[in-house]
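Coiled-coil domain-containing protein: structure, please.
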Amino acid sequence: MPKKLGTCPKALEARERRAEKKKEEKVRKEKELEEQYWKDDDKLVNRKLHRRDEREDKRQEQLDKKRELRKLYEEELEGAKAKSSIKPEPSKLTQAQIASAREKLAAEQAHLSKKKLIEEQELQPNVNRVEVEGEEARTVEEAIGILNVGDAPSELDRHPERRIKAAYNAFEAKMMPIVRAENPGLRNSQLKQLIFKMFQTAPENPKNQAHGSYNMS
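Here you go.
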């Protein structure tokens, strides 16, 4: 039976060095490949950016040429008009009168537009706030809450506040198309607040029904 040969330390060390060297070489190659990949990608991006800049420069150059041609055309047109407008003195006075009339017309139109805007603002109600029984509310819900507070129960209707919201919803559904047609420029919240103002004195309001019944008794 042959002797089992022992492992030579020097040979083992040499193998380990070779394995480490191969490992380092592999890592180095992978790193080089990665760097080359990103380098090529940067070149591609730079080429795209360069082409885009070139296209933008060409486009701007074309726009500048068009502007220049248009400017020359307008200058030539103005020159031709100036030459053809040389007429006796009465014609110049007529042109001045026409210009003055145009200015007056523009001023009158501006004045009428401003006056109309002011009138519309004065006629438009301040629907951002609703006053209910001496208190201000900014929303319909707050106003209904004010109506609910302080209601004294009576034999005729101990809890009219329980019916106020339902009655208002029905009233709003009925009146919304009418109020919107009459005030097309108002927002939906403003329309609702206008309807609520109407609801305060409407017979559909349970509070008005309760007060009316009480007064009749």
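Notes: Helices lie at 9-84, 89-123, 140-148, 161-182, 188-201, 206-216.
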